[in-house]
Structures are given as structure tokens and as C-alpha cells.
């Protein structure tokens, strides 16, 4: 990350942050939350104090701006070069925070040797670890917030921490801007690539877009992860369907997709959840879902209680082919795989027949490897 790349990245972040926070324009001179660049003498003095050269991405950052303000979630200001130093010298209490806690021995060692780069943060600190250095000479960054319930969160480098913070800003504030438009184009490309039979490439794009708060990516990612048997994708789907404070919606609710494909999966997982130990995604949405989601949940529950209720597997041709399969027979998987040639997406947000995973006869047949085989087929 050289000087020019930092300049471009920080200028875009500044513009998009101000688009989301127009009331802050008077506090940010010339639309720049940064400061004048650190001088060569200031950087050299910092390196002498630390006894080593700075990591490349942090050094080039200081050459663009000697500190940074406002745009990073939960971090109001980063220190300038003159104010950066060992945590043990600047904040002895935080440096010794984990010294007497046996389960945090690694975190205690990090804090004792770390370099403090944050000036003002929300009950937290941001530090560089000069002993955790990668092949490019980058030092790991750790963030620690007392309210997070976590010890420290590690990032590979200063640039990667800043990029992660940029993504978090977008996930929280969701301005209408160039970055979001770029992600929406990438999401559509990933959707088409997935339907063509690609798996890992679309997964990677959608995972990144989800970090930036693009709810359509979350809905598509839920379907891929469900077919791959990847953990509990129901936890993923909560955000685009929940009614949260100050939420900026980035995806128009596809009620037919939710009712036909997503809710059957959530109901099936709910039935398998030990409710004494954890809350299912469905139970959470019954409390926190937007009104349309709560209504669809109630409608689905009502249909399930009706005599003769059956899941619809999708478009008529595919639904008929699935119903013709005897799932007690050894050739059930082969016949199901052949039937997939008849499957068609019901909407532009539909990637795979995830409702199959809600049927207790079918779901055991679709192992993670078979789920990947399904996703590797050109679909629709």
C-alpha cells in the first residue's frame, strides 16, 4: 500500500463517510478527516523510539496523514507519529490488563510488547505488535474493546485493519456511494457465475460483499452455505430480515423466496435446536423480524399445521420430478441429481433449491460434497 494508494483509499472513505454523516462537514476541514503528513524527521524519531523500522503500510500511511479522525467505527482518532509509543509507557493499566488471567497469556504478552496507535476509542485500544511480523514486514494489529466480550481481535497488518474498518463503516452506515454500487455489480456477476456452476469464486465475492452490508449478498450466501452444509447459515440471514435501530435497508424483501425456500429451512433447523442452550434463527426473527417477516412466519406455521401439508420444491417440473422419487431406495440420490436439470430459479435472488434441505427424507442425502456437486451444475 504505497503513498498514492493510501491517498486514493482515504479520499474515497472521506467522501463516503461524509455522505453518510453530512452533519459532520463543519467539523472536517476541506472534507479531509486526516492531518498534514508526518515529516521524515517525525517518522525517523518514532522509529528510533521503537528501536526498529515501521511496518510498510503504517509508514506510508503516516506519509499521507499524521493521524486520522472520525471515520473508523468506535475509534474517534488515531495518534500522530509524535504521540505513538509503547503501550506500557502510555497506558500501563491496559498493558497489564491480562497479566493475572491465566486463559489470556498470549493476549497478555501482546499487550506488554505492543505499540499504541489509537488516541481516542470507545472503551478500547488499537495496537501494533512488533513481534508478530509477516513475510512483507507488516506487523499485526490488535483491537481490544471492553464491551465486545472478546479478548483481542488480530488483523494481519495495519492496512488490513483499516480495510476491515472501512468495511465495518459501510456495514453500519450504508451510504449510497460508489463503493456500494461497485459491490452490487460484483454481486450480480457472482450470482450469474454461481448459476453457471462456479462455487468458490462466487462464495468469496459474496462473503466480502456481506462484510460491506450488502443484504442481497447475505441472502445469496445463505443459499450457498445451506447447500454446502456450512455451519448454521440461519444466523447469517438474521440481519437482512431483522428490524434493527436506524437500519438502512439495502435489499428489497423477496417475500416469495422467503416463504418458499428460506423459511422451510429455518423451521426445520428450529425443530432440531435445543432451545435450552441457544435461540434458533427462527425464534430470533419472531422477536426481531420486520413485520412482513413475522407475518410470513405466522403464515408458514399455519400452513404446516394444516392436514396434508407438503413442502413445494419449486417450479412445477422440478417439484413433480422430486415427488416421483422414492427416497427409501438406493438410487434416490442419482434420481434427485438427474431431476436438478429441471430446476429453475424463482427470482433473481434465487440460487439453489435450498428447500430440499428442509425435507427430513432428502436433507441427509445431500452431504456437503453432494451439495457442492449440485452447486457445480449449471442451473436454470
TrEMBL record:
Coiled coil stretches, renumbered: none
InterPro entries according to UniProt: Knr4/Smi1-like_dom (IPR018958), Knr4/Smi1-like_sf (IPR037883)
SMART domains xref list: SMI1_KNR4
Stretches assigned to the Knr4/Smi1-like domain: 37-164
One Pfam family cited in the UniProt record for this chain: SMI1_KNR4
Protein name: Knr4/Smi1-like domain-containing protein
Organism: Nonomuraea phyllanthi
Organism ancestry: Bacteria, Bacillati, Actinomycetota, Actinomycetes, Streptosporangiales
